Amino acid sequence: MTTLIISLVGLLMLHFTMQKGFSRYVAEVEMQRLDVLVDGLANQYQRYGNWQDAMNASVRSGAVPYDRVKRRWLRYQYELAMRRSLKRRLEERYSRGNPAHGSYLENGSLVSPLSLAPLLMDDQDAGRAYLPPFQQSGPPPMMPGLDRLELGKRLVLYDAEGSYLAGLRAAEDLPKRSIKLNGKTIGYLGLQPALDPEDTLSVNFFSAQSRYLIWIGLSCFLVSAIVSSLLARNFRRPIGELLETASELTHGNYQQHIEIRRNDELGDLAQSINQLSTILYQHEQSRRQWVADTSHELRTPISVLQAQIEAMLDGVREATPAHLQGMQRQVLTLKKLVQDLNELAKADVGQLQCHFRLCNPWIIVLQEVESFEHKFAAKQLHVNLVPPTHEIELCIDPDRIRQVIANFLENTRRYTNDGGELALSVEINDNTWQLHVDDSPPGLSDEELERLGERFYRVDSSRNRATGGSGLGLALSRQIAEAHNGQILFDHSPLGGLRATLCLPIKPA
């Protein structure tokens, strides 16, 4: 439709412009043939000093009506200019020794242009030429073929201000050519267009052109329709595949992918949808794993409590303090698990509460190491403390940081072999305060290091509770570090085990 509208508007404008400007264009082309006349008129003006005297000098008797002089003088000047131009061409041609060239037939016999030489005037005679007697109907007939376009009948002369002087009285808006003498404009020569848009020939010409333009417009519309159809098909097919894939994603089919290999925006959109599908699939798998792990972690202490309570109700086990303490340990485990889940849920929605204040984090490290002293002694772990080179205070939440350090120490106690080693050191640079917690073997593989910090992920795949926890401690520790604008990194320890690094910014949180 856009191409059709543009074509129609363009064709209408072209047709209108052709009707209005074609005849003027033809007249401007004809004006290029009037160089000799322009030069002759400039000579006449130079000879007499003004147009009035130039026209009066060509009249034998002063009784001649001036309006008739205006009508006939310019035409006669054109005839004189044409004769002068023809004489020059004949002289040049016959000076080269080719008298037969240029002859023409008149009354059945070959006539040489040299026989017409007496009718031609030289430049001096042209300036003194008189108009023929006004009793005649007009100037004497011109030589055959001298004015085939009848330019002399359509000439108009204007002065330097654009006022009419001589020639045909016609419309004001005519093609004009300036007449200059010594670089100064002394007048304008106008030419009435020979074509009339209203005559039969012009109407037929413009009608034929209109038909051609219509066919051109229809051809352009047809070609554009074909090209548009091909382009639309080229775009519609991948868009349909994108819609189909999006519909599959809304129905939960996150393994749906699009095979579109394009270098345009549709190709970029297809690649983005494929990436979105992969991310949604990973999130769905994580969600399912989260639900399964949560159910398992909750089910285990509940099952133990249920078995102990049923044993007491059946009389198999007595409600002794030892048995009640075992049940209490399961309740505490369940409470810790629920509390960790609650903290992680708050961190996911940005509601993890932290109460910041200035304090020395190394003091918190020493306090936690002291609280774990008896546990390390039970496994014969040797603790090596490397204090920082200088004390520094950070804007942190002491209880949350204490929770992270306690988690590091508990993991070390739980997974390090008996008789192993634990080292805690601090590294301070311009921007961060870093606590390195290194332990001795066993170590972890690179793949296991990448997964540390995932929820419910534990290195021991057997899920043995003799050594493994719930798998939420490191995940919650990462959330706490991020709430302090810091991070937790895992790497291989120089002691052969795991290095856990807590990075906290020195600038106020």
UniProtKB/TrEMBL annotation:
It comes from Alkanindiges hydrocarboniclasticus. PANTHER family: SENSOR HISTIDINE KINASE TRCS (PTHR45436:SF5), SENSOR HISTIDINE KINASE YKOH (PTHR45436). The lineage of its organism: Bacteria, Pseudomonadati, Pseudomonadota, Gammaproteobacteria, Moraxellales. Residues 233-285 form the HAMP domain. Residues 293-508 form the Histidine kinase domain. The keyword Nucleus does not apply. Keywords: Kinase, Membrane, Phosphoprotein, Transferase, Transmembrane, Transmembrane helix, Two-component regulatory system. GO terms for cellular component: plasma membrane. It catalyses: ATP + protein L-histidine = ADP + protein N-phospho-L-histidine. This is histidine kinase. GO terms for molecular function: phosphorelay sensor kinase activity.
